[in-house]
Amino acid sequence: MGYVVEFYSSKNSHDPSVLVLKKCEYKNDEYKRLDLLRLGQQVMHMQDLFLPKLRAISRSTMIAALMFTACVLILYLFQITFSSRDSIFSNWVVPDGVTLHEAAIQFTSGLLNTDDLQPGWGAFAFYYPSKWVGEVAYFLINLACLLVVGRRLGFVSILFFPYFIVAMALPSKDILILFVSLIFMIHLIDGRWFIALLIALLSYFIRDGSAFVLVSIFLAYQVMRRNIFPPIFMVVIAFVVGALLFGLLNDFFGDTFIVARNLSVYEQNSSSLLGYGSWFDYYVRVFGNATNLAFRPSLLDENGGISVVAVGYFVSGISMLTSLICSAHTIIYNKSALAVKLAVALLVSLAVISLNPFVQGRYLFPYSVIFLGYLIYSGRLKYVLRIYIFTIMISLIAMMAYSYSGIPGTAASSITLFNFFE
Fold first, then answer.
1. How is residue 305 annotated by DSSP?
2. What are phi and psi of 94, to 5 degrees?
3. Using CB atoms within 10 A of its CB, is residue 281 exposed (0-12), middle (13-18) or buried (19+)?
4. In this structure, are residues 259 and 249 in contact, taking their beta carbons and an 8 Å threshold?
5. pLDDT tens column, 32-41
6. Which long-range contacts (CB under 8 A, 24 or more apart) does 191-194 make?
7. What pTM, to 2 d.p., does this model score?
8. pLDDT tens digits, residue range 53-110?
9. Three-state DSSP string of 37-75
10. CA within 20 to 30 Å of 280's CA: 24, 89, 112, 340, which one?
11. CA distance 59 to 75
12. What pLDDT does 5 receive?
């Protein structure tokens, strides 16, 4: 016999009655060891994490924010110093960031308009202050976004995904989507349906695919809220529907901008070994999105140096796979309604992202941070670390299996140089 905290969302979520302490039997012994003090801390964590109401920042949170800022500032100085040099360490900046930076310069200079940047002009609007402040505006805006995320989820959750820290030096849609997704989840859980749906739709103008992910999470959450289907059944439905849609996208939606653009780029990529159109191809992409960054890392550049971005991808990929394993375990064994809903949201994200012809596991990073952050912030860091160690072990085994099986590994990273002083 033990206790568990259940979170019930309502429009009047500031009323403490939305947090209910239930007495019940548990399959998980971890909850049995929670004393009343720990339970009280859990209630405070849940309220602080998901209620949009501003609260006084505690001294410990302020210290953590300052330490986080100091660490990322040191890395930023390294990026400024070494990103334009070819040495044993390379790729200090994310290649997509360089592309976005070049487009941002043309956008802020009036050489490109919103029609030219469709549908991602929203990202450039975020970084528009760079027109007056310069490239340091990218870092400051990204830092502000991650400080908000760290304030809500704990800065440890961000450290599990160092890719975001490496991406801070230049424009990053991934950081913006993480920030927007967190705001979306806050309003969704708090019962502000219209605002949550509006945020989901507006995210289209940052990254088109994220709008489909967030709308899918919104719909799945509404179904779960009404207890129409068991959570595990919801996940099964998501992947079955995903497989059916994958085979119909080209036939029924091939003329739409998003599908036509992605398929065009995919067909031009002659190095791709994946087929497209069958349910088997879809599930191969699901597996690839979930595991490729952890199982098939490319830590070296084309000259044999160490790629900083690739290391960030690898560590973040292990964290992402950890979050997926935790989500599956949570759906099966956890009795916390909120934890289960967040776990289903993460797996639904994987199902939707895998509709993309390309395997892009990093698109799952924002949703993984939110779920993993919730687990850590609600007092389950030891549980996360146990799964993390397990994930490292299976990752090492998988890397050896790929090596000995003769399956082609990912290509060495091409070297991306960027001069911050030009």
1. P
2. -75, 130
3. middle
4. yes
5. 444 434 444 4
6. 191/9, 191/10, 191/11, 191/13, 192/11, 193/218, 193/222
7. 0.83
8. 334 457 788 888 999 999 999 999 999 988 877 778 888 999 889 988 888 888 777 7
9. HHHHHHHHHHHHHHCCCCCCCCHHHHHHHHHHHHHHHHH
10. 340
11. 25
12. 43
